[in-house]
Design brief:
This protein is an alpha/beta fold. The protein is built from 15 helices and 13 strands. It folds into 2 domains: 12-52 and 285-381, Glycerate kinase, domain 1 (Rossmann fold), CATH 3.40.50.10350; 60-276, Glycerate kinase, domain 2, CATH 3.90.1510.
């Protein structure tokens, strides 16, 4: 019996996957899923719509540029340790909105095999990208933060944008972020009017304390256990010498990207928003979900952290609000109990292969998993 016989209704399928980190971009993941579905759906009347997603980390610029059009602009900046680096950002089709990922200029992946120095690692390069976008005419900046090599509270970004950090004698402090504890006064740039800045963030950590950026993420950036208190005290001092610093430090997301969330608040007057919510609004994702019969999402790893503002969970919640059937694909599933929140989850990895082998074959594995899933769904409905 043909499960796609003429009596069966035409399906509208939405594929809204995030990246499979280290293997596939969100665009590539959606394409692989779509190809697998098409292998099973031989009736061309079935509609498959791909809407790649991001949650504020790396990939947000590509997602919004792909969806809205525009151009990619390259410039030279400093990498986290001060070396010259070619980096870019998206200027969307309206010519007024720039989408900048801090990881392009200040990300830990940029270090390669170099050892990070958390006393030197700076967001200066991210500030350079913002400065370039302003000069290009941007009146709105969407700043995606995540994947940072830094723990500088956004001081490097501020310095690149003209803020002056001075000691008790009025002398400039030139060795930021190492010299943060010496800052007695922060002078704003001569031009103090910045465009609207919206920070897309996928974590809710405050700046300081046991849940702050230093204690939670510092070890990933090379901060040794004996230096954690030093870095915490430096950021606490920054709070005290910054206007409205105490209130900003407690905001959810202030601790994102080594305190860049905090820096964006106090130096740029930024708005901090959930990255997925911003992307979903800009992409019109709610309308796309409402029109679909089946909603498919995915990400490289699904685990307990996936419930904390990550893109695939946001897709599942939208689908649930509209009463839509769902399935999620992942490279690795941390706990099968996540299906209580996500619904059906398909883990694509080959259990007999190494991580490296699975990642190298991610597109093929995802395509085949999508095909098997749809064949099974059609057979069950026959």
């Amino acid at each position: 019996m043909d499960p796609e016989g003429e009596g069966n209704p035409v399906m509208k399928i939405l594929v809204a996957s995030d990246k499979f980190k280290g293997s596939l971009t969100a665009v590539e993941a959606c394409a692989a899923i779509s190809e697998g579905l098409r292998e099973a759906l031989t009736d061309p009347r079935h509609e498959i719509r791909c809407v790649p997603i991001a949650d504020g980390g790396d990939g947000i610029a590509e997602i919004l540029l792909t969806a809205t059009g525009g151009r990619w602009i390259e410039t030279e900046v400093r990498d986290p340790l001060g070396a010259p680096l070619g980096a870019g950002y998206a200027l969307l089709a309206n010519g007024k909105t720039a989408v900048i990922e801090m990881a392009k200029a200040s990300g830990i992946v940029l270090l390669g095999k170099r050892e990070n120095d958390p006393f030197r690692a700076s967001t200066y390069g991210t500030g350079q990208l913002i400065r370039h976008a302003i000069a290009a005419g941007a009146s709105e900046i969407i700043l995606g933060i995540g994947g940072s090599a830094t723990n500088d509270g956004g001081t490097g970004l501020a310095e690149a944008l003209g803020y002056r950090f001075e000691d008790a004698h009025g002398a400039p402090i030139e060795n930021l972020p190492a010299g943060i504890e010496l800052v007695a006064r922060i002078a704003p740039p001569d031009k103090t009017t910045f465009p609207r800045v919206i920070v897309a963030c996928d974590v809710t950590n405050p700046l300081l304390g046991p849940d702050g950026c230093t204690r939670v993420y510092g070890p990933q950036k090379g901060i040794s256990p004996e230096d954690l208190s030093i870095h915490e005290e430096r950021l606490a001092h920054l709070v005290e010498v910054t206007e409205k610093g105490r209130a900003a430090a407690n905001r959810p997301g202030a601790g994102a990207a080594g305190g860049l969330g905090f820096g964006a608040l106090v130096f740029l007057g930024a708005e901090l928003v959930r990255g997925f919510d911003l992307v979903a609004e800009r992409l019109g994702l709610a309308s796309a979900v409402a029109e679909a019969d089946l909603v498919i999402t995915g990400e490289g790893c699904l685990d307990a952290q996936s419930l904390e503002g990550k893109g695939p969970h946001g897709v599942i919640r939208l689908a649930g609000a509209h009463g839509k059937a769902t399935v999620a694909f992942c490279g690795r599933l941390g706990d099968r109990s996540l299906e209580e929140e996500f619904g059906p989850i398909v883990e694509i990895r080959h259990p007999g292969k190494s991580l490296e082998e699975n990642m190298a074959r991610a597109s093929e594995l995802l395509r085949k998993a999508a095909s098997r899933f749809m064949h099974g769904r059609l057979a069950a409905e026959a």
